[in-house]
Amino acid sequence: MNKVRVEEMFRRLAERDPEPRGELHYKNPYTLLVAVALSAQATDIGVNRATRPLFEIVDTPQKMLALGEEKLRDYIKTIGLFNTKAKNVIALSRILVEQYAGEVPRDREALETLPGVGRKTANVVLNIAFGEPTIAVDTHLFRVGNRTGLAPGKTPLAVELKLLKAVPKKYMLHAHHWLILHGRYICLARKPRCPDCLIADLCAFKEKTSPP
Predict the structure, then answer these.
(1) 59 noted as active-site residue
(2) Is 209 a member of any domain?
(3) What is the pLDDT of residue 89?
(4) Which residue, 27, 95, 102, 104, shows the most beta carbons closer than 10 Å to its own?
């Protein structure tokens, strides 16, 4: 996709939704970090259902340690891989208390050293909590990057690095939200909703779907 098409794509996405938001519920950088860590191989809806009552009583790593792993498991037992995720959340909370005075670091490398936190999770936290122009490549964004021709790549990292070069600077802060939401609701995996797509005429996907 050439620069003119990329510019037009993001202009349209920005015009439709000037201030896009992630769909995970959180109260502060710490609860955002926990929510994103819990969302791996789970839906945002499922995570929100579990964390809504949890975050009413736990909104700091100190409170999470006081709650303990066993009680945390009870809150998140409806989320996939909840045993492993509970261990990771307790472990990362302990590190935050012991090494960062209970604060979430504004640093990708530091975030990626936390248990259960990979590059995608770190990018989400940096973007949403701290306003950093990062791009978190999930399955939706990976599909959109490849299918549209915006940022084709064989790995999430390859797509991320291409997007960092392709996305105009003025759109970078919100780019990953626009693309993830587009993939979640319009550019669906099995049957993309091309007739409803705001950017269909700019997209390189050849097998576009027809109106029902």
Answers:
(1) no
(2) no
(3) 98
(4) 104
Please give the pLDDT value at position 211. 80
Domain finish residue from 96, 130, 164: 130
Q: What is the phi-psi region of residue 149: left when phi exceeds 0, alpha when psi lies from -120 to 50, beta otherwise? A: left
| Set 44, 59, 138, 208: catalytic member | 138
- Check residue 41 and give its pLDDT: 86
To the query of whether residue 208 is one of the catalytic residues in this protein, the response is: no
Q: Which range marks the domain in which residue 175 is found?
A: 3-20+135-202
Where b means 16+ CB within 10 Å and e means fewer, 141-179 reads: bbbbbbbbebbebeebebbbebbeebbeeebbbbbbbbb
Angle at 182 between CA 176 and CA 188, to 5 degrees: 125
Which pLDDT tens digit goes with each residue over 53-76? 999 999 999 999 999 999 999 999
Catalytic residue among 44, 59, 63, 120: 120
Could you give the CA distance from residue 170 to residue 95 in angstroms, rounded to a whole number?
A: 35
